[in-house]
Design goal:
Order of helices and strands: HHH
Oligomer: single chain
Shape: elongated
CATH architecture: Up-down Bundle
Number of strands: 0
CATH topology: Four Helix Bundle (Hemerythrin (Met), subunit A)
Helix content: over 70%
Distance between the termini: 79 Å
Number of helices: 3
Radius of gyration: 23 Å
Strand content: under 5%
Largest sheet: none
Number of domains: 1
Length: 128
Amino acid sequence: MFRKPISTRIIACIMLMMFMTVIACATFKRNSYRSLATAGETYDATMKSAGELYFKEIINDEQKNKIIFIAKKYKASYDLAVDALDAYNETESVEAKDRYMKAFAEFTPVLQELIELVQEFKKSDKGV
């Protein structure tokens, strides 16, 4: 029976680990870009809905300004996440990935706050 030298097995294991790392990195990037795209589309739909409420005079200037304030806060943190993901895409460093994860964690609750606020105004329009 012929046995492969240990060094061949070690090289095979290292190559397998490198392959798995590349797959994990690609999956992280793909999921991150999809998450940002979904968040952007959600933001756009929410702001369109808010604009319609304002156009129909269902919300007043004070309510509109509150929406705009939260929207600006969201947009700033969203842009940070996009920049951080771009940096990670270029460097694939742990620091860039951490910056992206932190920025993503910051804009997600702000988007939720914006959605809830607009939904609250929509409910008042329906008399609920």
